[in-house]
Amino acid sequence: MSSPRNKRYTRRQHFIETLLGAAMLGGRLSALSYRIGLHGKLGVTRHTLTLPSERRLAQPLKIAFASDFHAGRTTHAAIFDDLFARIASEQPDVLLLGGDYITGPATHAEVLSARLAHCHPPLGKFAVFGNHDLSTDDALIADLFERAGVRMLVNRSITLAAPFSEVSICGMDDPWTGAPDAAATFDGAGAVRLLLMHAPDGLLKLRGQRYDIGFAGHTHGGQIALPDGTPIIMPQGPLSRPYYYGRFPVQGNGDLIVTRGIGCGGIPVRINADPELVICTVQ
């Protein structure tokens, strides 16, 4: 297995995190929060993208997108069972994962990899890293996910199998804690380009590259918001507030879909910012 990209992360930290992870898995507070509904109600949000006539697909492509799982002490694992049951019922062609798989030790990713191993969209599972993943042993997360059949995309694109051989998943590294490289991300990409990144701030790193529709998370929709959905506290990043949740037109490019994500970061509570699975049909 390769080494973590975060050079400040040491094997001693790995040992300490492993001990802490064993102690914190299935935390009582997150379990209580889930039972009384404070994790929010998982829903499905649907989008449809109609491509220009010159890039129209032979048949619709159904994409499932989920992000910001935050497996660990702040998110009870039962919500992941809810999520993967929804994915199974939706029967997407492809599954995209937007990063921040853990809060705390990388070993928390095991609760996700076990479920991902039993998830089989016919065109594959693809993932990028988030800032939380890159603060710990991202190499361990990558190893766990790859053994579960997930293809990790760090500034690279992968073209789907027929009948979608003109469609590429373009995965760019986290804009601030990673090393994003837009040219490498889109190198060799097909005519139809689906951009997968962790945070909306990735738009600032595109350097003129074109995509048809983008997917990002990071913001949690505020996680705690006013009744109208206005976020109260936002994560860092200049584009987190203007692109806090929803589908946004991007000047000179395709739309960007920003999800509220699945888990809880910081505290095990969501208010007026329910978790969601995004289903996007491209036609």
How many distinct beta strands?
A: 12
Structural class: alpha/beta
Q: Order of strands across the widest beta sheet?
A: 1-12-2-3-4-5
Proportion of residues in β-strands: 15-25%
Largest sheet: 6 strands, mixed
Fourth CATH level, the homologous superfamily? Metallo-dependent phosphatases
Annotation keywords:
283 residues; alpha/beta; Purple Acid Phosphatase, chain A, domain 2; six-stranded mixed β-sheet; 6 helices; 12 strands; 20% helix
Summary?
Helices cover 20% and strands 19% of the residues.
Describe the model:
- By secondary structure, the chain is α/β, with parallel strands linked by helices.
- It has one domain: Metallo-dependent phosphatases (Purple Acid Phosphatase, chain A, domain 2).
- α4 packs parallel to α5.
- The protein is globular and about 55 Å long.
- The termini are far apart.
- The relative contact order is 0.21.
Architecture blueprint of SSEs:
Blueprint: H1 11-24, H2 28-35, E1 43-49, E2 61-66, H3 78-90, E3 94-97, H4 110-116, E4 125-127, H5 138-147, E5 150-152, E6 156-159, E7 167-171, H6 182-186, E8 192-196, E9 213-216, E10 246-248, E11 255-258, E12 276-282
Parallel strand pairs: 1-12, 2-3, 3-4, 4-5, 7-8, 8-9, 9-11
Antiparallel strand pairs: 2-12, 6-7, 10-11
Helix pairs in contact: 4-5
